[in-house]
Design a protein that fits this description.
The complex is a heterodimer of chains A (318) and B (323). By secondary structure, chain A is mostly helical. Chain A has twelve helices and three strands. A three-stranded antiparallel β-sheet of chain A has the order 1-2-3, with no helix packed on it. In chain A, helix 6 runs antiparallel to helix 7 (220-231). The longest helix of chain A has 37 residues, at 101-137. In chain A, 43% of the residues are buried. With 323 residues, chain B is an all-alpha fold. In chain B, helix 10 (229-266) packs antiparallel against helix 12. The radius of gyration of chain B is 24 Å and the shape is globular. Chain B starts with a helix and ends in a 10-residue tail after the last helix. Classes of the chains: A mainly alpha (318), B mainly alpha (323). The interface between A and B is large, with 43 and 54 residues.
Chain lengths: 318, 323
Amino acid sequence: MTRRVALLLAALGIIAVAAPWLAPYSPETQYRRFLYAPPMRPHVIDAGGWRTPFVYAIEMTDQLSQRYAEDRDRPRPLPWFDSDAVDPVFLLGADSYGRDLLSRLLHGARLSLSLSLVAALGALLMGAAIGGVAGYRGGWVDEAAMRSVDFVVVLPVIYVALVLRALLPLALAPPTVFVMMAGIFALVGWPFVARGVRGIVAAEREREYVVAARSLGAGTGRIVARHLLPACAGYLLVQFTLLLPAFILGEATLSYVGLGFPEHVASWGTMLIEAANPNAMQRFPWTLAPAVAIFLVVLVANVVLQSDKIGSNLIRRA
Amino acid sequence: MTLGRFLLRRALFALLLTFVASSAALLLTLLSPGDFAADGTFGDPELMAARRTQLGLDRPVAAQYADWVSRAVRLDFGQSLLYSRPVAGLLGERALNTAVLAAAALGVATVLGIPLGIYTGTRQRGAGVRVVRTLSVVMLSMPPLIASLVMVLFAARTGWFPVGGMMSAGASEMSWAGWMADVAHHIPLPALALALPLAATLERLQGQAMSDAIRQPFVRAAEARGLSSDQAMLRHGWRVSLGAVLGLYGLMIGSLFSGSFIVEVVTAWPGLGRLMYDALRARDLYLVAGCAAAGAFCLAVGTFLADVLLAVADPRAHMEARS
């Protein structure tokens, strides 16, 4: 489990950190001559036999229906090896503004993933702290914390996030939106963490090793941080694997309905706005690329969770 | 705890939830920057001030809140500023639409998930089981946002279903049967988008619970008494596994609500979620509070029904002190 989560994180982290170098073009450059350009298929064979991977340049054949055709006489190298800035190579196609979808997807991964990472860590920290204290102290602290948790947990999370976000000012700079969304997600996510941590801590604090630590004179803070929270490590890891995709979806949902990042900023949610028009989405299905990316992340998280006994046990208990 | 007291506690919790959720929504809207008066005035301060006075938005927050509470306890939720209609009527209409969608999705999820779960739970291996398990992980990874986009793509490509909405343009003039048929033509895609991840969750849980249950000695005993193994599993094994599955229904009501918001937005289903979104964007405070009240109430009723179901199926459940 730990290894798998670490692998997953590392893979996502590399994509996110390296996005500016992996992306062939700027995510916000608009190539006005290539609105809704289709994905250009890489080829390895031409009339002369095998070659290094290349694509054929495209030419608009019909302005009205936005149709393009491959120009077989003009082979082009893949975008990373292509220095032509006027005539870009779209491996995943272009959106309604003629922006390169691959570049936007990579830059979007950076924004969406880092946002949910920060939010998930925030939720874990808050949840572990509150759940830990509630479970260890017991009494009215426990009662008060768990009653409020019960209350938040029954609410449909997306509505809480929606209300909180909708009531803050709409037009904000992207960094402000980032901090605000991470804060909101952490705020709606911690009760789920706190409930489980509290249960584990409450069960563990009567165990011999805790009693031994206490009788040796260890203080509350030390016992919770050094002895009880490590006991929750497996649970926290599972929660992290659950929260990460949930927050990616949260960002996508809020941005899709226009309450997230501004449209020109590339995130998986803002990219999905392109797919809001059924007619355009049906004619240019490559605008659904971010949906595929989200699906893959959620799928990987689910496979990691499922492959592990802890995961399936927790799903059963939920 | 007796069943009566348990039900009473749940009913009180439902009322409290409705009250707190709607109050919080109203207060947050009151305290947030911007209000409805700004709409359509092109930033003219005099016009805005005049509208504020006219709508009563210039009073202190506490006074507006107290006024709203005193009317809300008499089930008068005020007038929607956005639609210029009483909030209560609007809510009834939209809540019904959401309830129809949610019920359809819950039905589809149950019909798909439970039998498949029994199938994978009783048979541990085989090609069929592997196919179902793989499909179920894929479906689990298709949250309503993605699923509804895929459904819209499917509808737009094939033309077999409408890409959005709940009824066709002329539906209000149709006969009762025609109207039903029209809605029935619109509902499959949004309902499926909402139902597929839930069906996968149900399948996973039912499979787990079933494979635990059939290892219990009483299933072997039933077989030993001469029941066929299918009968032993269904009549004894499944009954016991139901406790865990019904427990999930209570939690699923919440995710149905969460999921229906985005499905309503993507497929233009005129439900509570869309209404709430429009109300929030327009800062239509009475409508926001009304939506929160209606949503919380439906949620509480849903969880309450699930609890009752659980209490009936497994009498041990309500004995534990649950709130």
